[in-house]
Structures are given as structure tokens and as C-alpha cells.
Amino acid sequence: MGDNTGRNYFVGVDLGGTKILAGLFDAKLQPLGATKLSTKAQRGSDAVLERVARCVLDAIDECDLETKQIRGVGIGAPGVVDQEHGEVIFAPNLGWKDVAAVKELEKRLDLPVFLENDCHVCMLGVYEQELKSKPKHVVGIFIGTGIGGGIIINGELFTGANHTAGELGHMVIDINGPKCSCGNKGCFEVLASRLALFRAIQAAVKNGQKSELTEMLGEDLKDLRSGDIRKAIRRGDKVVEKIVEEAAEYTGIAVANLVNLLNPEIVVLGGGVIEALGDEMMPTITKSAKSHVMPGLFKNVEIIASKLGDNAGITGAAVLARNKTR
Ligand SMILES: [Zn+2]
Q1: Distance, CA 82 to ligand 1 centroid (Å)?
Q2: Using one digit for the tens of pLDDT, what is the confidence trace for 170-198?
Q3: Which of 76, 93, 172, 296 lies at 20 to 30 Å from 17 by C-alpha?
Q4: Which residues contact residue 47 at a Cβ distance below 8 angstroms, ignoring those fewer than 6 apart?
């Protein structure tokens, strides 16, 4: 096995606001192992990049490999990236502006490094690993703390004129809705993300509505996680169930808009919220999408939940490194 360069492995990095994940993949993009570090964004970009480098080297070491066997390192970063120059232009979660991430990491790792937006990278991972690159037109919606997306057109990631395509979390769904972090009102993200769910649940509890969650976590709902929401629903919590149902309905509206716009074969939903609450949300998402799409346009659209979960980011980042080095 192997080619004459002897470099048959890839590292995929998922750089998030709270944690860094680095995964090792072989030439066929099969996962070999992964390591995790906290991001510690408050320490500044230099310190974070040092931690990314350490996480990559740890992952290589954990898999009993050496850097000379690695062909490339892909990185998915949150926010706006200039992939051509390897810079993170703006990443509010990290507190970064104009950070030359690729240059710094190549210096530290002595390996070729490639940068992409995290949701674009997740889309690449889901498309290649889960959908086996079969469908030509796919929309990916990733629902976590925020909401982002990726679009595949004719088998290729569509990135747009300024490389920012797929910011579907900021589609306006309800002009009278709550204010979004972007300054607009009623964005998809402010109605259906993890933060949106948490906010709605906290408001309901504050208004005196009874929820299983206060029994599980206390009145202030400290450390509320998506998994707790699922548990509460399974215990019969109607307040929480209704809030999740509403988020699923909004998600269906977003899906309908995207189906009208792009006519994809598959809409795939992923991210932490779908990983935790997919069973609860998917039927409503599908129903809502069907009822909001223009008549006749729902033909042959499949709406599915990704099974890659947290691994979508590292997988896609490895796909990126593979694509850029072949
Ligand atoms: Zn917004």
C-alpha cells in the first residue's frame, strides 16, 4: 500500500469556540483516532494556534504515526475565512480578526495546511463520507449554538463570490421575531439554534411554567444541554416539547425556502441539536417543509439527519486536505 511519497495520512481539525478536535485519517479517509483540547480563546490567537498545533501533533502521536507520514492538514474555522490566503478574516466566537492561521500553523507543524469555513468543511465531510458523493445537489443545515450551512452544486462545494455562501442561519424567517446577534430580527438562527431553545425554555420557566428541567437542573437551569432537553421530552415535559416543536417548524420553513431556491436532491441536517434531538425534530421538520414548499417542488427531495455528529468537522477537514493535495 501507499504511494512513493510515503505520506498517506491526513489530519482534519475542527477549531471551535470552546474545543479543538484533531482527527487522523488514512488515504481512504477512514478515521484512525482523534484528540481534543479546550480552545482557551481568551488567551488570544497565538496561544490558540499553538494549541491547535499541539492537538494535531498529539493526534499523530496517539496513532503511532510521524509528521513525515502526513500529507496535509485541513482546518475548519468558525466565521469568515479567506481560504486563498489562509486567513481567518473575522471569527467572533474566537475573538479573531485577520489572523494568518495557515502561515502560523505551517511554521509550527512543517506540513501543508488548508483552511475553510467550519460549515463548509462539515458539508464536505457529510457529502463525501455519508452521501458517498453520489447526489449532485445537496444542502446541509448545521444546527448547534448557531446555525450554518453548506451547499453542494453539481458535486462541488458552492462558496459564492466572497466565499461566504451558505450563511443560511441568517435567512430572515419572521420579521417580527427576536433580535439576532447579527443585528437583524427573526433570523432562522435566533428561532431554532441551541441558544434559541435555551432562551425560550428559560423564559418559560421564568414565567412560572412547569418543566422537568427545573427538577433535573434547578431553577436557574445552569449547565442546560441539548441532551437534557431530550431527556425532559422523554419524561413527558410538554413545555419543552412545544418549544422544540416550534423550532422544528421554523427549521421546516427554512428547508422549504432552500428547496424552492435550489431544488436539491437531499437536504441533510446535522450539528449538536440534531444529534441530540433529531428523533424529536425530524418528523416535524419534514412535515413543515412539505407544507411550506411551493406546490409541485417537493418531488424527490429527501430530508435526512446526518449520523456523523461531532465527527463531521474533522472528517470534512481531512477531505479538504485530501482534495487540496491530490
Ligand atoms: Zn442573524
Answers
A1: 21
A2: 999 999 999 998 899 999 999 999 999 99
A3: 172
A4: 40
